[in-house]
Write a structure and sequence with these properties.
21% helix; 42% strand; 3 helices; alpha+beta
Length: 136
């Protein structure tokens, strides 16, 4: 009985919260904007990925970093890290007609009860500039 109740609570938290998603937004850059390396900025990017964890460290579900904005999930994989933040920022390079993403900054957040926390929400927000590389 207790196992079933725990499974129902976990399912409601995961499915009802909408907290395990990945999103990518692109905003047109300001005219004449350049990256720190001098390349032309085409888009300003903002990527967010959220996940639900058990005891802060055991991943239950995270947003899919190859398929943002689709409510696509990955179970039992830790995708709240810098490698996957870069993957999420770069996943639409071909569609956005850009060569690379530069000037990346990543911020991490987590919510839970220290000491008693069984279920934790962890996330990152990454920002970057999608650039067209200069022809030399």
């Amino acid at each position: 009985m207790k196992k079933n109740l725990f499974a129902v609570i976990i399912s409601v938290l995961i499915l009802g919260s909408g907290c395990a998603t990945s999103t990518l937004k692109w905003i047109p850059a300001q005219p004449g904007e350049k990256s720190s390396s001098g390349n032309k900025v085409v888009w300003d990017l903002e990527a967010v990925n959220n996940g639900i964890y058990l005891f802060y460290c055991i991943p239950i579900v995270c947003g899919h970093t190859w398929r943002p904005n689709r409510f696509d999930y990955q179970f039992f994989l830790h995708w709240i890290n810098e490698k996957h933040a870069l993957r999420l920022l770069n996943c639409r390079n071909k569609a956005l007609k850009v060569d690379d993403v530069e000037d990346v900054a990543v911020v991490y957040k987590s919510n839970g009860w220290p000491g008693l926390g069984i279920i934790w929400s962890r996330s990152f927000m990454a920002r970057g500039k999608a650039v067209k590389k200069s022809q030399k």
